[in-house]
TrEMBL record:
It is a multi-pass membrane protein. Residues 97-238 form the Integral membrane protein YccS N-terminal domain. Keywords: Cell membrane, Membrane, Transmembrane, Transmembrane helix. It comes from Streptomyces hydrogenans. It is found in: Cell membrane. Belongs to the YccS/YhfK family. This is Membrane protein. InterPro entries: Memb_transporter_dom, YccS_N. The chain crosses the membrane at residues 87-116, 123-144, 150-172, 354-375, 395-417, 475-493. The keyword Membrane applies. PANTHER family: MULTIDRUG RESISTANCE PROTEIN MDTO, P-HYDROXYBENZOIC ACID EFFLUX PUMP SUBUNIT-RELATED.
C-alpha cells in the first residue's frame, strides 16, 4: 500500500495515514452534548461565585473524566461506568499530589502507577477506564500544584464525576422504555434490515450490524441479571424474546442464497419482524398470526418456521422464568469473577506486556521533564497516556491523530486565551467547548482530541494563570509525548511489526472447521447454537483487529490489506454452512458424511497453513462432491478462501 494519486494527478498520502482524519458518519448525541455543557460550566460558575476558581476548575476536571467515560446505554451500567473509575481517579490524584515536586521519587511513582494502570486495563471496559483515570489523575497531581490539604483535590475531582452522574440520572424518570427492552427491540429491527438486504451487496454489512446489536443486547441483560437475586419474569421475557432471534439469524444465510437464486423475499417477512420489534418495545397487543405466503423451498420454510415461533414467544403472556435458555450460562458469583479478573491481570502475558510498555513510556516521559527545565510539563506524560491507551486502536495511528488533533485544539485554545478575558467569560466559553466533546468524539479520535485539548488548557490556565504562554509549550510537549510513544511504545516492540492477525484468523478458520463438522452431526441443540454465536463473535473480533491493523504503516498494514479478503471469505463460509444446515433441517437432502469430512479437512489444512506463513499467493483447489448438492455453496466459498492462500497451504 503505497502513496496514491488524487484526482488532479498529484501524490496523495497513504490511506493508513489519513484513515482516522475522515469523520465517521455518526449522529450527534444531543443529550450528551447538553449534559457535558452543564457538567463542565456549572462548577466553574460556582467557583467564581464563591471566589474559589481553582476549586471550581478541579471539579470541572473531574466532570471531564465523567463525560469521557459515560459511554454505556443502560442507566445501571452508566452509574457503574462513571462511579468506579472516579474512585481510581481519586486514588491517582492523591498519589500524584504526594510526590509533586519530588523529582525522581515522582518518576518512580508514576512508572509504578503506569504498570498497574496498564495491567488493570486488560480486565475489561470499566477496568480500562479505571486504569486510564488512575494514571491520568496521577500525572496531573504530580504536575500541577493542588490546593491544600492533600485530600481536597481527590474530593473535588470525585465531586465532578458525581455532577455528571447526577445530570445523567435526571433523565431516568423521563426514559420511556427500559434500555434493555429498547436494545432487544433495536436488535429485531436490525434483523428486519438484514432480511431486506438479502441478495444485495449490503448483506454482509447488515449481518455485522446484527452481530454487534445482538452482543450488546445480551451484554446489557447479563449485566442486569448479575445484580439481581433470582430471575424476574420481565428479565425472563426479554431473554426469551432475544433467544428466538437465533433461528431467524440462522435462516438468514439460507434466505440470502434463496434470493440470489430465485428472486426477492416477500415484503411481509421484514414487516412482520418490525411488528415484533414494536411489540417487544411497547408490549404485546394481541397474538396476531404472521401473514406469510405459503413456503415451498427449504429456505422459505426455515424463515416461516422461525417467524411463527418468534411471534408466539413475543406475544406469550408469561414465559416460564426457569425454562429460558439464555445461551450465556448462569453468571458466576462476584467473588469468582473478581478472582478471574485478578488471575487475568496477574498471569496474562498480554497484561504484563502492555503494562511494561506503558510503564517504560511514562517513566521516560517523566524522567525527561525531570532532567530538562520545562515548566508544567505534565502534558508530556498526559499525551503518552492517551496515545498508549489500548482501547483506542493502533498506537501508531493514535500518535499521528493525537498530534493532528492537538494542533487543531491549540488553535482554538490560542484564540480563547488571547481574546477572551479570564473570569466570568470562562463560563459561556466552557459551555460551548464542553458541548463539542461528545459531538466530536463520535466523529473519531483526532476530532475528540481537538475538542478536549482547549478544555484542558482552559482549566489548566485557571489553575496556573499563565494565559497565552501555555499554548506553545503544550504543543511541544504533545509532540514530545507522541515521539516517546512511537519509539518506546511502538518501534521497540516486535509485536508492533509482526501482527498476530494471521494467528487469530487461523483460529477462526479452525473453529469454522469444527462448526462444519458439528452442523451436520445431528439435531439442533443449545451447544451448537452457542458455538455458532461464539464463532460469529470471534469473527467480529477478528474484523476489529483487521481494521486496527489496516491503520498501521507497512509491513503490518500492507499484510492486513492482503489478508482482508481471506477474513471476508471465512465469514462467507460460516454463512454458507449455516444456510446449508437450515436447508437440510427443512427438507433438503443431507450431504454425504465423506463430503462434510473433506470440507472440514480442507479448512483445518488452511488453518495450519495460516499459522506458518506471512505471505499469501493465488492457488486453486478442488473439493470432492456434487456441484448440485446442499454443500455446493460451502465448497464454493472454501475454494474461494483457499484461492487466496499460498501454495504451502494446499
Amino acid at each position: 500500500m503505497g502513496r496514491g494519486r488524487g484526482g488532479n494527478g498529484r501524490l496523495a498520502p497513504p490511506a493508513w495515514l489519513t484513515a482516522g482524519l475522515r469523520p465517521a458518519p455518526a449522529p450527534i448525541p444531543w443529550a450528551a452534548v447538553v449534559r457535558a455543557s452543564l457538567a463542565l460550566s456549572l462548577p466553574l460558575a460556582a467557583g467564581l461565585a464563591l471566589d474559589r476558581p481553582a476549586e471550581g476548575a478541579l471539579v470541572s476536571m473531574g466532570a471531564l473524566s465523567g463525560v469521557i467515560g459515560d459511554t454505556a446505554d443502560a442507566y445501571r451500567m452508566r452509574i457503574f461506568n462513571i462511579a468506579v473509575p472516579q474512585l481510581f481517579g481519586a486514588l491517582g490524584v492523591t498519589l500524584g499530589t504526594l510526590v509533586f515536586g519530588q523529582g525522581w521519587l515522582a518518576v518512580a511513582t508514576l512508572t509504578l502507577v503506569a504498570l498497574a494502570s496498564g495491567m488493570i486495563s486488560s480486565i475489561g471496559a470499566v477496568a480500562s477506564a479505571s486504569g486510564l483515570l488512575l494514571l491520568l489523575n496521577a500525572v496531573v497531581g504530580a504536575g500541577l500544584p493542588m490546593p491544600d490539604p492533600w485530600w481536597k483535590a481527590p474530593v473535588l475531582l470525585t465531586l465532578g464525576g458525581l455532577v455528571v452522574l447526577a445530570l445523567t440520572l435526571l433523565g431516568w424518570p423521563l426514559r420511556r422504555v427500559a434500555p434493555e427492552r429498547a436494545a432487544v427491540a433495536a436488535t429485531y429491527r436490525t434483523v428486519a434490515e438484514l432480511y431486506e438486504a438479502a441478495g444485495s451487496e449490503t448483506y454482509q454489512e447488515k449481518r455485522h450490524a446484527v452481530t454487534a446489536s445482538l452482543n450488546q443486547s445480551y451484554d446489557l441483560i447479563l449485566a442486569r441479571r448479575t445484580r439481581q437475586h433470582g430471575r424476574t419474569s420481565s428479565l425472563a421475557r426479554l431473554l426469551a424474546q432475544l433467544n428466538v432471534l437465533i433461528p431467524l439469524l440462522e435462516a438468514a444465510p439460507a434466505a440470502d442464497l434463496r434470493v440470489r437464486l430465485h428472486g426477492p423475499l416477500p415484503p411481509a417477512v421484514a414487516t412482520t419482524i418490525r411488528r415484533l420489534a414494536d411489540a417487544v418495545e411497547t408490549g404485546p397487543t394481541g397474538r396476531p398470526d404472521p401473514e406469510l405466503p405459503t413456503a415451498v423451498r427449504p429456505a422459505e420454510k426455515a424463515v416461516e418456521h422461525a417467524l411463527r415461533h418468534a411471534a408466539t414467544v413475543v406475544h406469550e403472556d408469561e414465559p416460564d422464568p426457569y425454562n429460558v435458555d439464555d445461551r450465556l450460562g448462569r453468571p458466576a458469583a462476584l467473588t469468582v469473577r473478581a478472582r478471574r479478573a485478578a488471575r487475568t491481570m496477574l498471569l496474562s502475558a498480554p497484561s504484563w506486556r502492555y503494562g511494561l510498555r506503558l510503564a517504560l513510556c511514562i517513566g521516560l516521559a517523566q524522567a525527561l521533564v525531570s532532567l530538562i527545565e520545562v515548566p508544567r510539563s505534565y502534558w508530556v506524560a498526559l499525551t503518552v497516556t492517551f496515545v498508549m491507551k489500548p482501547d483506542f486502536g493502533s498506537v501508531f495511528s493514535r500518535a499521528v491523530l493525537r498530534a493532528v488533533g492537538t494542533c487543531l485544539g491549540l488553535v482554538s485554545a490560542a484564540l480563547v486565551l488571547a481574546e477572551v478575558p479570564r473570569g466570568w467569560w470562562d463560563v459561556p466559553v466552557m459551555a460551548v467547548l464542553a458541548a463539542l466533546i461528545p459531538a466530536f468524539s463520535a466523529k473519531g479520535y483526532a476530532f475528540q482530541t481537538a475538542a478536549i485539548t482547549p478544555v484542558i488548557l482552559l482549566l489548566s490556565d485557571t489553575l496556573n494563570q499563565q494565559g497565552f504562554d501555555l499554548v506553545l509549550p503544550r504543543l511541544y510537549d504533545s509532540l514530545i509525548g507522541c515521539a516517546i510513544a512511537l519509539v518506546a511504545g511502538y518501534l521497540l516492540w516486535p509485536e508492533s511489526w509482526h501482527s498476530r492477525i494471521g494467528d487469530r484468523l487461523a483460529d477462526a478458520v479452525a473453529d469454522t472447521a469444527a462448526y462444519v463438522d458439528r452442523a451436520f452431526g445431528g439435531p439442533a441443540d443449545a451447544g451448537r447454537l452457542r458455538a455458532r454465536r461464539k464463532l460469529y463473535r470471534d469473527l467480529s473480533a477478528v474484523r476489529s483487529e483487521f481494521q486496527r491493523a489496516l491503520t498501521e504503516p507497512p509491513p503490518t498494514g500492507t499484510r492486513a490489506a492482503a489478508w482482508w479478503p481471506l477474513a471476508i471469505a471465512v465469514e462467507r463460509i460460516v454463512d454458507a454452512t449455516t444456510a446449508a444446515r437450515i436447508r437440510v433441517a427443512h427438507g433438503a437432502p443431507p450431504p454425504d458424511p465423506a463430503e462434510v469430512t473433506a470440507v472440514a479437512r480442507e479448512l483445518r489444512e488452511l488453518a495450519e497453513g495460516l499459522r506458518g506463513t506471512d505471505t499469501l499467493f493465488a492457488v486453486r483447489t478442488e473439493l470432492p462432491g456434487d456441484d448440485e448438492g446442499v454443500l455446493a455453496p460451502v465448497r464454493q466459498e472454501v475454494r474461494a478462501a483457499r484461492a487466496i492462500a499460498g501454495p504451502e497451504l494446499r
